[in-house]
Amino acid sequence: MTTMDARSMGTSVRRIEGPDKVTGTAPYAGDTVADGTLVLYPVQATVARGEITAIDTSAATALPGVAAVVTHLDAPRLADDGDPEHRVLQGTTVHHRGQYVAAVLADHAEVAAEAARLVVVSYDEAPSTTGFDPDGGSYTPSALGNGQAPDSVVGDPDAALAAAPVVVKASYATPMEHHNPMEPHATTATWVDGRAIVHEASQGADLARQTLATLFDAEVEVSSPHVGGGFGTKGFLHAGTVLAVLAARTVPGRPVRFALGRRQMFETVGYRPATVQHMALGAEADGRLDALVHDVVGATARYKEFVEPAGGSSRSMYAAPHRRTSHRAVPLDLDAPTYMRAPGEAPGSFGLECAMDELAVALDMDPIELRVRNEPSVHPENGLPFSSRGLVECLRTGAERFGWSTWDRAPRRRLVDGWWHGVGVGCGTFPAFRMPGSTAEITFTGGRYVVAIGAADIGQGARTVLTQIAADALGVDVGSIEVEIGSTSLPVGSIAGGSAGTASWGSTVVEAADRFRDKYGEDPDDGDHADAATPDNPWAEEFAMAAYVAQFAEVAVHADTGEIRVPRLLGTFGVGRILNPTLGRSQLQGGMVWGLSMALHEESVVDPRFGEVINHDLAGYHIAANADVREIDAQWIDEDDGYVNPMGAKGIGEIGIVGVAAAIANATYHATGVRVRSLPITCDDLLTDPAFG
Amino acid sequence: MTTTIPLSITVDGEQRDLDVDPRTTLLDALRERLAVTTPKKGCDHGQCGACTVLVDGRRVLSCLTLAVAKDGADVVTANGLAPDGGSHPVTEAFLANDAFQCGYCTPGQVCSAVGAIDEARRGMPSAATADLAGDDVVLDRAEIAERMSGNLCRCAAYVNIVTAVEEAASR
Ligand code: FES
Ligand code: FES
């Protein structure tokens, strides 16, 4: 299979909406300022579990400027779409602290906030469990968050482990983490003649429309032209959107705006759940794996199941005749977890790739060679050939560029000006797939081709790369293309998620372009148009398709304070064709910074007495800031994969984060001789370890 | 009724008069009362920098500034840096270096960069400045990263932001 010819694809076209973004004139969902807009401020549950016994709204309602106070007693009824998170103000049951129990609408933000404080809610509190205890009661979930089965077994891994000459067994922990896009979720909703018109911060306007249309049994329009980051939290709708549209229904004709505060971003829009991963690797003296076991225990919410598929990548990364993955879930009385950048692969690669490093140490072998030795020729579980698999080339190319061979393999050897230096490697994968269900429409008008598809640009650059894809598919310059996205007034688009956005929309645009040319040739008339639905990938069942990465990190650890810095990160990616090198590098580097942030900063701390994330703001929940990031480099190998899609592009939204935390943890071990098996790695992890000295 | 207080400020070159609740922040006054939505609200607590604007030439967090305290001030947002639709070296450098992805932190980054470059020119040291007594600050990458660290970017365009600021500062 060959990929389509590229003229614009592969070149660094600038972001089309760039000028609007640098001047701040691109409209985000919270930027709609219409006369008569009411500001929504929510009232949130102060218990983790229980029943509402009474709500007194009299003082709030009496406050001048308050237009309405909506509670479960008077809220419009919603249809049940099967998602408990969407049952907003429909009853008295409290599932988690911070759950919305009422909404105040007022002329101004200050008044709405003040009125919300005056609403008095009484509860009959029930006992709750909100602290994650991996040894507490767990159950086997019916499916993982990615739809896969919770368990997989090949051969007899326990017997193989018992017989293996070299065995590494260790447990690794990853914490609860919150997405925190810089733009908090925001919704502006107006009901006009029984229709809801919604401006939403969304990774998929059509998914939002479908969900709201079901809940409200009404026609719904959603626009989402610019989105201030999503990372998974703006995919499926959360309660805040439903609350805003519900409250707006009580004041027909008036726009209602609900822009979440940062604190609410820790209470109502999901998170990556904590995991504990029990790894066991059994190998021959030459490094070949006999057995690979990845048993995961993860947190979920009692009222809504989402299980992080942390063992997923262990199903395909390395060859081993005997293997097992398993997932168990511990239900907690918390907001429901959800997809967060590389769900499964991000935390799962920490367990697997640190264990591989420990095995390399046990074998006294170069960790790169260990991985090369366990490169599978086909998918180790399902036996499918790989459409392309660049892991070994990424390891070799990256090692060369990074100067890997110049470092002594023994730990704790390089002390420079009071800082221990070390290097580490961690690898990763992320599936490449295509979502069905989009439609692209191409219309020739005024000498240009207007390409319409309800795609979402959440910062990845959809508007720009779809322009490039359309230009090449039609055989014209990018200047002849105008792409329209981000609204349900356009043909349906699937969501920006699963690193499948560009692959899905792009394949659809290519199909529509082919039809357009078939119908009208090279010289169309004004108004000619053609459309196409997302074509199935005929190779989807024939090949295992995924992106790969080898991440290299250098760390410096202060010998007295244990402060950890990351002077250098290099990611070498095998991701098919990069459609726009500048935008692609930005996205991959951004993912790598997420990995650094995961390794050293991010942890949501739940107070088990109250079920509250206590570090619920950006002062308490640290994400990497500018000065945390030093030299960071993303490069990619040449990879021509005609099986994934006509463009030959694998998704790059998530692969950037995968493997970074392990690379940093492994480098920290190499620098100091201290093995830290839980994230984030902090100074006290090192200072309290006798080996740190 | 809540007491309101009259306020007169210049926003991106235009004189604006309004009455505000004394609790209103400069950010809310701009966004909600004046429909100036260039500065963004990322946290409302002075922890992210998305709301950064220039007030009388200096970068401030507008979410931590009460509007009534700025009567008579000259406020410039990222949209007002280049009068008459021209381009500004900082916004140009952000575009040329892809120093953003989703763009939500960007108007704040841009204003912060303008402020940071000016502070360095005036010899103000930072935690990354080696010679605190000297009056020449060399705006190298470490200095820029330090001075721009009050502006969080979850898309993590940091490397490109530093390059953009470096480029703009050299012009
Ligand atoms: S909104 Fe002002 S610092 Fe975050
Ligand atoms: S560009 Fe998205 S937060 Fe900075």
UniProtKB/TrEMBL annotation, chain A:
Work out whether the entry's keyword set contains Repeat.
Answer: no
Q: Which residues are in the Aldehyde oxidase/xanthine dehydrogenase a/b hammerhead domain?
A: 23-127
Q: One Pfam family, please name it.
A: Ald_Xan_dh_C
Does this UniProt record's set of keywords contain Oxidoreductase?
yes
Keywords of the record, alphabetical order, are: Molybdenum, Oxidoreductase
Q: Which domain of life is it from?
A: Bacteria
Q: What InterPro entries would the database entry show? A: Ald_Oxase/Xan_DH_a/b, Ald_Oxase/Xan_DH_a/b_sf, Ald_Oxase/xanthine_DH-like, AldOxase/xan_DH_MoCoBD1, AldOxase/xan_DH_MoCoBD2, AldOxase/xan_DH_Mopterin-bd_sf
* Chain intervals for the UniProt region annotation (Disordered): 129-148
Q: Which Gene3D superfamilies match?
A: Aldehyde oxidase/xanthine dehydrogenase, a/b hammerhead (3.90.1170.50), Aldehyde oxidase/xanthine dehydrogenase, molybdopterin binding domain (3.30.365.10)
Tell me the protein's name: Xanthine dehydrogenase family protein molybdopterin-binding subunit
The species this protein was found in: Actinomycetospora termitidis
From TrEMBL, chain B:
Task: Please name the CDD domains in this protein's record.
Answer: fer2 (cd00207)
- Keyword annotations: Iron, Metal-binding, Oxidoreductase
Among its keywords, does the record have Iron? Answer: yes
Record's SUPFAM superfamilies?
A: 2Fe-2S ferredoxin-like, CO dehydrogenase ISP C-domain like
- Keyword Metal-binding in annotation: yes
The 2Fe-2S ferredoxin-type domain, residue ranges: 5-81
- Reading the lineage from the top rank, the first entry is Bacteria
Name of this protein: 2Fe-2S iron-sulfur cluster-binding protein
Organism the protein comes from: Actinomycetospora termitidis
Give the lineage: Bacteria, Bacillati, Actinomycetota, Actinomycetes, Pseudonocardiales
